[in-house]
């Protein structure tokens, strides 16, 4: 079977309504979200039913797509509530539901919902992909532990759309098969309650010396033996697109607006430049991916090049920029931007404006006024409305950062 290469969908995480809007405005073709129950982010903000209706309306208003994650492994007792929720999603008009449990898949099929099989279902081979397709799934989100050659083979043997992760945090354990958190804390990753135990720093303890911790690391910094780097397939995005997958997914429903906007804008530009025939890795893209919270990047399993994918020194993510506010309005006559505060800033501070489509520009804050027009010198209050003069016209939804 030959592979026709079409422009892939760029799919972004939506942890709340604001992040959903940012993802779409910064260039995502589609977003995925979880409701208050039944998605694998029990500690995320997640969407109420009212917010789901608003999210669908906003997304469809931009002629983009919205998918609902319903990817828990359900128990018998869950099905009354699940039936009610899936019926609601059907009426709300979501474009597909992401499922991993066969019972939930069966229910979604009965309710005529479009079905995407979640990565949580662990599809690692073409027979599994084909079987899910025969069961009614139109798209399969492949397990993250696959090489490019394996993805190509699945594509050649399965007519369903394929989706792969291209960016974000990774599990050191196999997608959807991790019991570490449940074993150590009682909180089950397969029910969305992971404590990220793989990121912890581990020592060795001898039974009769309970307060003595013997380091098991490679050096004095300790041992994070299960702490994975973050996935970033930007350097090989040409090969990713050539593999013929239909959708390229960014991980991170728990991440910030700054993260979603930054990562989406980079991949939007990279996909568009590949499709325009001039893809080459640009320094500005890598610089932007360094500004959002991340651990060291890896291409994971995709290139199967044997590069180490663990970080032994720290489990803390780093970022090279601070998110200060969102531009909510711009008055061209007075060249004044209205900013909703997210981090402290003050007069004389150097800031940059990261825009949905325009160029990033930097300037110094020369003066500030509050919503009542009073002059102020700093903005310490969360979500405070502040007006500042800007050096260039600035798009609404731009992020102000330092
Ligand atoms: S403990 Fe780590 S590997 Fe296991 S599910 Fe949680 S994040 Fe993934």
Written account of the structure:
Strand 4 (96-99), helix 4 and strand 5 (115-117) form a beta-alpha-beta unit. With 402 residues, this protein is an alpha/beta fold. The protein is globular, with a radius of gyration of 22 Å. It is 26% helix and 22% strand. The mean pLDDT is 91. It has 2 domains: 9-173 and 228-298, TIM Barrel; 323-401, Translation factors (Elongation Factor Tu (Ef-tu), domain 3), CATH 2.40.30.10. The chain has an 8-stranded parallel beta barrel, surrounded by 5 helices. An 8-stranded antiparallel β-sheet has the order 17-16-22-13-14-21-18-19, covered by helices on one side. Residues 171-173, 178, 180-181, 189, 194, 196-198 line the site of iron/sulfur cluster.
Class from secondary-structure proportions: alpha/beta
Heterogens: iron/sulfur cluster
Which class of the largest domain in CATH terms? Alpha Beta
Dominant shape: globular
Radius of gyration: 22 Å
**How many strands?**
22
Strand order of the largest sheet: 1-2-3-4-5-6-7-11
Proportion in helices: 25-40%
For the residues shown, what is the average pLDDT? Answer: 91
The number of helical segments is 10
Distance between the termini: 50 Å
Number of domains: 2
In the predicted model, the low-confidence regions spanning at least 5 consecutive residues are: none
Q: Could you state the CATH homologous superfamily of the largest domain?
A: Phosphoenolpyruvate-binding domains
């Amino acid at each position: 079977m030959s592979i026709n290469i079409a422009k892939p969908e760029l799919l972004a995480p939506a942890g709340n309504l604001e992040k959903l809007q940012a993802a779409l405005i910064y260039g995502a073709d589609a977003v995925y979200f979880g409701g208050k129950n039944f998605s694998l982010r029990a500690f995320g903000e997640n969407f109420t039913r009212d917010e789901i209706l608003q999210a669908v309306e906003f997304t469809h208003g931009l002629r983009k797509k919205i998918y609902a994650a319903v990817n828990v492994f359900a128990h018998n007792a869950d099905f009354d509530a699940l039936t009610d929720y899936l019926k609601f999603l059907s009426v709300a008009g979501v474009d597909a539901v992401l499922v991993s449990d066969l019972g939930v898949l069966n229910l979604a099929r009965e309710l005529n919902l479009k079905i995407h099989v979640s990565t949580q279902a662990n599809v690692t081979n073409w027979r599994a992909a084909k079987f899910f397709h025969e069961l009614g799934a139109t798209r399969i989100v492949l397990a993250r532990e696959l090489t490019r050659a394996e993805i190509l083979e699945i594509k050649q043997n399965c007519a369903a759309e394929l989706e792969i992760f291209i960016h974000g945090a990774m599990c050191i354990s196999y997608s959807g098969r991790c019991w570490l958190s449940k074993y150590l804390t009682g909180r089950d990753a397969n029910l969305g309650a992971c404590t990220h135990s793989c990121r912890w720093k581990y020592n060795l303890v001898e039974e009769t010396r309970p307060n003595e911790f013997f380091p098991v690391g490679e050096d004095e910094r300790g041992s994070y033996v299960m702490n994975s780097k973050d996935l970033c397939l930007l350097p090989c995005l040409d090969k990713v697109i050539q593999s013929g997958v239909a959708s390229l997914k960014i991980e991170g429903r728990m991440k910030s607006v700054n993260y979603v906007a930054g990562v989406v804008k980079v991949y939007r530009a990279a996909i568009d430049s590949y499709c325009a025939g001039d893809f080459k890795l640009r320094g500005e893209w890598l610089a932007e991916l360094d500004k959002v919270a991340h651990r060291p990047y890896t291409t994971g399993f995709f290139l199967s090049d044997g590069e180490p994918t663990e970080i032994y020194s720290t489990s803390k993510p780093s970022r090279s920029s601070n998110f200060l506010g969102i531009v909510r309005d711009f008055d061209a006559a007075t060249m004044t931007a209205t900013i909703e505060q997210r981090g402290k800033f003050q007069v004389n501070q150097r800031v940059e404006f990261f825009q949905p489509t325009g160029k990033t520009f930097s300037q110094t804050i020369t003066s500030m006024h509050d919503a009542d027009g009073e002059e102020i010198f700093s903005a310490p209050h969360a979500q405070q409305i502040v007006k500042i003069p800007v050096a260039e016209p600035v798009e609404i939804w731009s992020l102000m950062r330092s």
